[in-house]
Amino acid sequence: MMYRPLVGIGAIIVMAVACVAVEPSPRGDVPLATILYLNYGYDYWTGECKGGVESTGWERPSERGLTPEAGYYCSGDDKYIDQALREMKKAGISVVILSWNGWGDVAFNGKIEAPDYVAIDRTIDKVFGHLDGMKAAILVEPYYNLRLDLDNVLPEHKQKILDRVWAHYERHPSKVFFWDNKPLLVTFWPSGNHQWSLGDVDDDRFTHRQWGVLDRGADWDMTAIDSSLEMVRFDPGLDEGFYDQAWKKVFDNQESVKMIGVYGWNPWAEMASIEPTVEYGDTLVEKTRWYFNRFDHGEKYRLYSGD
């Protein structure tokens, strides 16, 4: 499997560690979150939910080293959504951050250029509808990349995005995750020359948080272990303990942690998923639950033994 310090195999992110002005949450009030990517299994041209290796998200087999236990699914399939949420609960996850790519009008010209994004937009509401005892928030991807230059995303375009996110939240008010007393909205900016943010728009309906590298201005730290590691690292046997080291960072910073975010449930293109696989079953799900339970009960870090 591949490890990246920013987006690594089973990488874990200590959210809000840098918020030193905020009182730490009492033990038991720190939620465990993960990102759920919804871009898998659609037809590029029609948005049909079909699954298979030739559908969206699965079309790069050379980058896949493991096989999802659920198969090459469609993210919009109701059975898959239920199964994924059950497994997340098993891991102790209570907050799902939904990766969103807009509503298909990537050029803001009133035309649908991306039917697969239309399907993802509909799946957002499906996931909200399937939540039971869990909360969700939306992560707005810099989805204009390769389809529209970020420099061409104007403030009025960003306002349209915020209005669309708000419409999703209004349809599911009891299932939205709140952060600092407002519905949470996240943008993702781990690296690169462009800072993708919606926090520069004057819209106080949300609590906006930027997820990425702290020394580049992000609010939440996505550096899992040691940034001196090479950017690509293969660990096909899960022998090098990257995930365990990332959890150790959580324990080392436990006085400042307000939320723990695991990156991610199913970022398969980056080989950073904890979703069950054919090869390893639910190993990382079990490991996640074990570490989080220790953290939640105020116990010290101890290396997972599988017992």
Based on the model shown, name its key terms.
TIM Barrel; 9-stranded mixed beta sheet; 307 residues; two-stranded antiparallel sheet; single chain; alpha/beta
Give an account of the 3D structure.
With 307 residues, the chain is α/β, with parallel strands linked by helices. Helix content is 23%, strand content 16%. The protein has five helices and eleven strands; from the N terminus they run E-E-E-H-E-H-E-H-E-E-E-E-E-H-E-H. A hairpin with a 2-residue loop joins strand 6 and strand 7. Helix 1 crosses helix 5. It starts with a strand and ends in an 11-residue tail after the last helix.
Layout of SSEs?
Blueprint: E1 2-3, E2 11-15, E3 32-36, H1 78-91, E4 95-100, H2 115-130, E5 135-140, H3 155-171, E6 178-179, E7 182-189, E8 207-212, E9 220-221, E10 233-234, H4 242-252, E11 259-263, H5 283-296
Parallel strand pairs: 3-4, 3-11, 4-5, 5-7, 7-8, 8-9
Antiparallel strand pairs: 1-10, 2-11, 6-7
Helix pairs in contact: 1-5
